[in-house]
Amino acid sequence: MKTTILTSLLIFFVGSFLNDAIAQKSLEEEAVIFAAEYQKANDRKDIVFLERHIDDQFISVGPNSSIWDKSQALENAARPNEKQDFKVIEVKGIPVKTMSSGNIVVLISNWKVVRQANSPANAVPQTDSGTTTGVYQKTDIWRILSEHVAFDRPTPTNSLPEIDRISGILDRSLVFRNYDYVERLLAPEYMRVNELGMSAQKAAFLSELRSRKLVILSIKTSNVYINQRENTAVETGLVDIKGTFEEVEFLKSLEYTRIWKQSDDQWRVTADYFR
After folding, report:
1. Residues 221, 241: Cα–Cα separation, whole Å
2. What is the per-residue pLDDT for 213?
3. What digits encode the pLDDT tens for the residues 185-218?
4. Does residue 243 contact residue 215 with C-beta atoms inside 8 Å?
5. Is 22 left (phi over 0), alpha (psi -120 to 50) or beta?
6. Which among 57, 76, 59 is positioned nearest to 67, based on CA atoms?
7. Closest CA to 272 of 205, 194, 204, 206
8. Which residues are bridge partners to 148 per DSSP?
9. For residue 154, which of 133, 127, 134 has the smallest C-alpha distance?
10. For residues 178 and 187, what is the distance between their CA atoms, to the nearest angstrom?
11. Is the distance from CB of 262 to CB of 226 less than 8 angstroms?
12. Among 5, 13, 48, 272, which residue's beta carbon has the most beta carbons within 10 A?
């Protein structure tokens, strides 16, 4: 059911951008139009279009901590629509921000979906809301690099002090360059996606750290929320990161999502997503 809601809200929120496009298009306006075309292709299950315009390194992070690559996105798009046990009453997408850097454009929107169960007849409507971030790149054609759909932050929980503790150790290990410990805390399938939609797998990220191509000098988090679903936990918050990349200094203030999974009584990070 969440997958269906995710697909619907992506279609509707990007569609709201299309009405604002004008004839003389900037790069950002071109991206808005492409994003609407992309979501319509999802809606009509146009696999040829999707195959061409989804980047080979595409990553999609869903609100339930699911992570899709290109092959999984295509497989999901080709799957027949399932009969749902609810009806959608209202879908709204409110554009928040459009940003660009070179040939990359980031589209951010707030969204709300109101749905009602088919049974009983007087079921109370349920509302989901959150933020969607899509990252697009124009080369010879437009491609989608990544998308991230997040629910609004729920009330913070204090039931996961272990994750809060380990997350702090991971951040300190990055700053003090204890990369062997960092490696232990990252799951084999670890994926890191930066605010421009660029992704790096575990081996590539560790290589950047150990070669000092990427040096993290300080990490400060705030407004941290941690919520658990069975053996998965989702940590969200704000982070200030200071460091150097290829010897060029940077200071970034970002929102982040860190996804944890428990295996053999050990919590490990499977993904970090920044925006």
Report:
1. 9
2. 95
3. 999 989 888 888 788 889 999 999 999 999 999 9
4. yes
5. beta
6. 59
7. 194
8. 61, 133
9. 127
10. 16
11. no
12. 13
Q: Which residue has the higher pLDDT, 215 or 224?
A: 215
pLDDT per residue over 62-108, tens digit each? 766 677 889 988 988 888 766 666 677 777 777 678 888 888 888 88
pTM: 0.57
Look at the block and give the residue holding tokens 């697909």: 7
What is the spatial distance between Cα 211 and Cα 193, in angstroms, rounded to a whole number?
19
Give the whole-angstrom CA distance, residue 38 versus residue 136.
11
User: In what helix (H) or strand (E) does residue 187 lie, and over which residues does it extend?
Assistant: strand 186-193
Length of the chain: 275
Nearest to 242 by CA among 254, 230, 256: 254
Dihedral, CA atoms, 194, 196, 200, 206, nearest 10 degrees?
Answer: -50
DSSP class per residue in 204-249: HHHHHHHTTSEEEEEEEEEEEEEEEETTEEEEEEEEEEEEEETTEE
DSSP string, 23-84: SS--HHHHHHHHHHHHHHHHHTT-HHHHHHHEEEEEEEE-TTS-EEEHHHHHHHHHSPPPPP
Q: Can you state the percent helix, strand and coil of the chain, rounding each to 5?
A: 30, 45, 25
DSSP conformation class of 159: S
Give per-residue burial for 190-209: e unless 16+ CB within 10 Å, then b: bbbbbbbbebbebeebbebb
**Which tokens in the block code for residue 227?**
């919520």
Name the pairing type of β-strands 54-61 and 67-69: antiparallel
* Model confidence at 160: pLDDT above 50: yes
Q: Which of 30-44, 73-87, 149-163, 176-190 has the highest mean pLDDT?
A: 176-190
